[in-house]
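hey m, so remember when u said the tokens were messed up on ur end? i reran from scratch. heres the input so u can diff it against urs
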Amino acid sequence: MYRQIQITVHRRSGQRKLFNALLALATGVLALIWPNLIYYIVGGYLIALSLILLYFKVSNFLSALAALTAVLIFLLPELIPYTFAFFLGVFGLTFLMMQLTILGFVTLLFALLIVMNPGSVAYMIGAFLLLYGFIHLVNLVQESRQNSF
């Protein structure tokens, strides 16, 4: 006898997306205002991101990657362009695997720009985080409009 069982789990990700968007926007603004403190700002952002990902049980791998990247940035601040570009590269590939193609390509593009211009890493990170936070806010608004109709 053949039985087909289907289990569907729906998880509301609105709260996580809101936290993620606000964190990215605040960090992007801070990175652009105080580019000399980029090591502390990005390290703090990555630690907060890893805690958000861990709390909402998104991905243990991405949470560990964010925490490891933060530790490397705090220990070796002169390698921030390459460390953060590596993080963005892995994050971008993850987005591509999750079929979020636009966000994945934008993330990979910023990783490439950071590696090509390590002297302007603070401005590149600030611009990326502002764009990333804005994209998350737009997606959140679109989802709330779709759910309300």
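this time it looks ok to me. The first helix runs from residue 14 to 33. if urs says something different then somethings off w ur setup not the seq
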